[in-house]
Amino acid sequence: MTGTAEVLRRQWQVSGERLQQRLAGLTDAEFFWAPAAPVWTVRPDPAGPDRWQIDYDWPPPSPAPLTTIAWRLVHLANGNQIYWEHAFGPGVRNFLDLEVPGSADDAVAYWRQSCEPISYWLAKVTDEQLPELRPSHHGPDRSAGDVVMTLIDEQTHHGAEIALLRDLYPRLVS
Fold first, then answer.
1. Domain locations in the chain as residue ranges
2. Which residues contact 99 (CB under 8 A, 6 or more apart)?
3. Residue 1 above 70 pLDDT?
4. Cis (ω within 30 of 0) for the bond into 49?
C-alpha cells in the first residue's frame, strides 16, 4: 500500500512536470496577453525603475477579474514562497516583500526556484511527519500535510488555467 507522503510526492511531481511542459517556449507576448477586460496582470511598478508589481485587491472583487498567465504564474510562485516561508521557514516575509519578475523567462525561473524547497522536503518526509502543526500566514496553524495539499491544489489549478490560456492564444491572436 502506498503511504500518504508518497501520494503527495507523486502529485507534486506530476503537477509540476505537467506545468513545466506547458511553460516550454512561453513568450512575453503570451505571458502578458489579456484576452478580456477587466484583467489582473503583472505591471511595471511606478514606485521603482526596473521593478514590477502584481495586481491584487483584498478582498478580491466579485466577480474577480480575469488573470493573465503572468499573474497566474507569479501568484503561484509567490504562494509557494509565502506558504513555505511561514510553515517551514522564519515566517518574516509577506507577499509585498517578494520581488515580482517582469518577463516570461524570469517568471518561469522564479516559479522553478519556488518549488525547490517543497520538492526537497517532500523527498524525505514520512507519513508520521505530515500531521505536525505548522504556522500559517493567515489564520491558525495547519498540518504540514495540509500545507502541501494546498500547494499541490494551487499548482494543479493554476497550471490548468495557464495551459488553457496557452491553448487559446494561437487561436485568438493572429
1. 4-172
2. 51, 52, 110
3. no
4. no
Q: Can you give the pTM of this predicted structure? A: 0.94
SS3 label, residue 1? coil
Helices (H), 1-93: 4-23, 28-32, 69-88
The pLDDT value recorded for residue 157 is 97
Backbone φ, ψ for residue 50 (5° rounding): 60, 20
C-alpha cell of residue 63: 466577480
CATH of 4-172, one of 3.30.420.40, 3.30.450.20, 1.20.1080.10, 1.20.120.450: 1.20.120.450
Mean pLDDT, rounded, for 152-167: 97
Residue type at 152 in one-letter notation: I
Q: What confidence category does residue 174 fall into, taking pLDDT thresholds of 50, 70 and 90?
A: low
Q: What is the mean pLDDT of residues 73-79?
A: 97
The type of residue at 147 is V
